[in-house]
Amino acid sequence: MATPKELSADAVNNTVVGPSILISGKLTGDEDLTVRGRVEGELTLSRTLIVEPSGVVKANVAVKNAIVSGVVVGNINATESVELTREGRMVGDIHAPRVIIVDGASFRGRVDMGDVEPGRLPAERPVVARPTTVARPTTPAARPSTTPPRPPVAPSRPTQATVVARPTPPPPPVARPPQSKPLPPPPPPRAEPRPAAPAPVVEQTASAEPPTPFAVGAGAKKKVVVKKKTR
Amino acid sequence: MANTVIGSSIVIDGEISGDEDLVIQGTVKGKISLKESLYVEGSGVVEADIETQNVEIAGRVTGNIVASDKVELKTDCRVVGDIKAPRILIADGASFKGNVDMDMKER
Fold first, then answer.
1. Contact indicator for A88, A68 with CB cutoff of 8 Å
2. Which residues of B touch A17 (CB under 8 A)?
3. Is B8 an interface residue toward A (CB < 8 Å)?
4. Which residues of A touch B41 (CB under 8 A)?
5. For chain B, how many structural domains are there in total?
6. Is the pTM here over 0.80, yes or no?
7. Contact at 8 Å (CB) between B78 and B97?
8. Residue A21 contacts B where some CB pair is shorter than 8 Å
């Protein structure tokens, strides 16, 4: 039998629902569950639910962690985190203190992270979400739209023209390249450029954030349609 | 090959169907219908009607079993229900209560 081998490969204490399996009804447990097939109804775990790319879950889900690479239709209530990976597609509401939606994932529904404590979330976010922003190619596209408002300001103050030209790397400075670009430090002494200096910083953060909902929204519509066909 | 395992802490109340082997270490209530083999391991508890090709039971099963090939009751199993299959094996030490029907081929 290949059974014992498969078991050990998947970690001993682990439940797997294979690709051709359909479970309809109520499923509860205290161990990790990997879904490669279909689960319908209700799913309650005190540990982690992993929905693999071939997995389909049409259920109300209550777990500690959920990692969705397949399809989930229904609400997810997680005590810790919910992650939609690149291949994840989901329709339903998410209620979890940590919600991670990666570029490429599609999602339609509400997200509720509970009480958002300003001190806590930013600390956690960089750890997991950083690859997301790096991989996102849409960021440069968003920048031009935010840049235009600036030129009108520039003409009024000739001195700022140099500041606007910011994209071209500061000519003299130390060769430390990537870090120095976002916050152009060359003109600290002058009083006038000061408004311009903070502006880039704002623009940076702003351009990094907005694409997230945008990309997700666009992807969601497309993929939801596809999903209905398969049903 | 693909393999499905219901771990020991899992409880399923409902229906399981599929085309692959299923290993039960936890609890399943309701109905199981497979086209392959079902293994109820020592820790497994099944309160369900079972319809598969093969069944191997080392745990506890309450319910009727219909297999197109073989049913095997292993040493420490406890089975209550009717069994219908062309081949039925009951090992020494197994406890079983119910009817046995091996007439499937003639049908």
1. yes
2. 4
3. yes
4. none
5. 1
6. no
7. no
8. yes
Nearest residue in A to B26, CA atom: A29
Q: Do B10 and A14 touch (CB under 8 A)?
A: no
Asked if the Cβ–Cβ distance from A2 to B3 is below 8 Å, we say yes
Residue A229 DSSP code: H
Q: Which residues of A touch B26 (CB under 8 A)?
A: 15, 29
- Phi and psi at residue A95, to the nearest 5°: -125, 105
Contacts of A41 in chain B (CB under 8 A): 14
- Counting other chains too, the contacts that B22-27 makes at CB distance below 8 Å and 24 or more residues apart are B22/A18, B22/A21, B23/A3, B23/A7, B24/B59, B26/A15, B26/A29
Q: The tokens of A227 are what?
A: 């999903």
Each residue's pLDDT, cut to its tens digit, for chain A (231 residues) gives 444 434 334 445 589 999 999 999 999 999 999 999 999 999 999 999 999 999 999 999 999 999 999 999 999 999 999 999 999 999 999 999 999 999 999 999 999 998 766 555 554 444 444 444 444 444 444 444 444 444 444 444 444 444 444 444 554 554 454 544 455 555 555 544 454 444 444 445 444 444 444 444 444 444 444 444 443
